[in-house]
């Protein structure tokens, strides 16, 4: 605490990201991809003329937005890009959710959303998940300043199909509905086609998980022109160049390689389902997942002790110290070898 801080800064409770350890651990705590980015990314970075780093990047990041527009079958003007989807989310909260009515979000979802609410002074209310840890979409109504949730949701892993999102949009048309699709490539269904008929739908996504580029910081939003124009206004009042020149070429190269993308996500999905069966054999309850992580709990073992036991064996997972989630561990899907080590370590701890 310092007297030099603005009053609001004294009141902030920042988001705490998963640990990035300096020692070599099997890292299953922040949902990174265990496989390298597409080979074309390395080539694009090698080919980049270093002399061009003298110049500011394209403030519009046009090449990247065009590549994303191609990928999703939309117009370039329907795509916004940012320095990680966290930045895109922050700008979205500022652009759309500072309303008289409170924002609505599920009680369990990405824990950065309440942090943005406090940063921007946004009032919010939460909707409890149902008894199977799903977001009850029918409980989200139009009497809000906005609606936000992750789909598939984090850290539960459950995802709703496009049809369910369409039904929500039939009811909620007077405020922005933000669907955070950080994990959609691991078995979810994207809502992006719905933007053509719903000007209040904003879908965000990231290169951090399914495209193995968490270190590059690239995220995007897809929505109607009016929503994207609003985001541009706020972005251009804050930072004209959130995407650097190297990130633009690397992002374009990552989007070009569909084969690598499909191969990596299929491997992760198959490893996930194999890991699910092995953990169930060890006595874990494993929630269904359309993501690159599993949320698990053990009837007899304390999650905090499991976390510590794994850490002692060189494996890092995520334990949330909240009332709703303290029985659970969230385990990122790594390579098959990494999951072998995880299962062996859990066997040793449980016996
Ligand atoms: C990882 C994650 C993000 C942030 O992704 P970045 O693009 O790396 O900032 C956003 N939303 C959810 C739900 C996530 O899990």
TrEMBL record:
Highest rank taxon of the organism: Bacteria
HAMAP family membership: HisC_aminotrans_2
Enzyme class, first EC level, given as a word: transferase
Reaction(s) catalysed (UniProt annotation): L-histidinol phosphate + 2-oxoglutarate = 3-(imidazol-4-yl)-2-oxopropyl phosphate + L-glutamate
GO molecular function terms listed in the Swiss-Prot or TrEMBL record: histidinol-phosphate transaminase activity; pyridoxal phosphate binding
Pathway: Amino-acid biosynthesis; L-histidine biosynthesis; L-histidine from 5-phospho-alpha-D-ribose 1-diphosphate: step 7/9
Similarity field: Belongs to the class-II pyridoxal-phosphate-dependent aminotransferase family. Histidinol-phosphate aminotransferase subfamily.
Cofactor: pyridoxal 5'-phosphate
Name of this chain's protein: Histidinol-phosphate aminotransferase
Gene: hisC
Classification via Pfam families: Aminotran_1_2
EC annotation from Swiss-Prot or TrEMBL: 2.6.1.9
Subunit details: Homodimer.
Biological process annotations from GO: L-histidine biosynthetic process
Keywords, in A-Z order: Amino-acid biosynthesis, Aminotransferase, Histidine biosynthesis, Pyridoxal phosphate, Transferase
Residue numbers of N6-(pyridoxal phosphate)lysine PTMs: 209
Ranges where the Aminotransferase class I/classII large domain occurs: 25-346
InterPro entries: Aminotrans_II_pyridoxalP_BS (IPR001917), Aminotransferase_I/II_large (IPR004839), HisP_aminotrans (IPR005861), HistidinolP_aminotransfase (IPR050106), PyrdxlP-dep_Trfase (IPR015424), PyrdxlP-dep_Trfase_major (IPR015421), PyrdxlP-dep_Trfase_small (IPR015422)
């Amino acid at each position: 605490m310092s007297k030099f801080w603005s009053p609001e800064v004294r009141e902030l409770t920042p988001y705490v990201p998963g640990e990035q350890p300096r020692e070599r651990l099997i890292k299953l705590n922040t949902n990174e991809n265990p496989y390298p980015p597409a080979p074309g990314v390395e080539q694009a970075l090698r080919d980049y003329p270093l002399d061009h780093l003298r110049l500011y990047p394209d403030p519009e990041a046009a090449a990247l937005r065009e590549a994303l527009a191609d990928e999703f079958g939309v117009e370039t003007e329907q795509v916004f890009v940012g320095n990680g989807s966290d930045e895109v989310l922050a700008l979205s909260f500022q652009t759309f959710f500072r309303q008289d009515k409170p924002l609505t979000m599920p009680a369990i979802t990405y824990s950065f959303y309440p942090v943005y609410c406090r940063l921007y002074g946004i009032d919010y209310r939460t909707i409890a998940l149902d008894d199977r840890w799903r977001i009850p979409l029918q409980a989200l109504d139009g009497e809000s300043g906005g609606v936000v949730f992750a789909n598939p949701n984090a850290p539960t892993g459950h995802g709703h199909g496009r049809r369910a999102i369409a039904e929500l949009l039939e009811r909620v048309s007077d405020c922005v509905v933000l669907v955070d699709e950080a994990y959609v490539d691991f078995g979810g269904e994207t809502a992006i086609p719905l933007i053509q008929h719903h000007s209040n739908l904003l879908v965000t996504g990231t290169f951090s998980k399914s495209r193995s580029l968490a270190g590059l910081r690239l995220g995007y939003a897809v929505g109607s022109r009016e929503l994207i124009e609003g985001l541009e206004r706020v972005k251009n009042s804050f930072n004209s160049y959130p995407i650097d020149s190297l990130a633009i070429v690397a992002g374009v190269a990552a989007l070009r390689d569909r084969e690598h993308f499909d191969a990596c996500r299929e491997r992760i999905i198959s490893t996930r389902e194999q890991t699910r069966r092995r953990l169930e054999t060890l006595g874990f309850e494993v929630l269904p997942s359309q993501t690159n992580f599993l949320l698990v709990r053990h009837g007899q073992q304390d999650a905090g002790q499991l976390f510590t036991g794994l850490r002692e064996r060189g494996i890092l997972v995520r334990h949330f110290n909240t009332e709703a989630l303290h029985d659970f561990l969230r385990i990122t899907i790594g390579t098959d070898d990494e999951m072998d080590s995880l299962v062996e370590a859990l066997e040793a701890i449980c016996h």
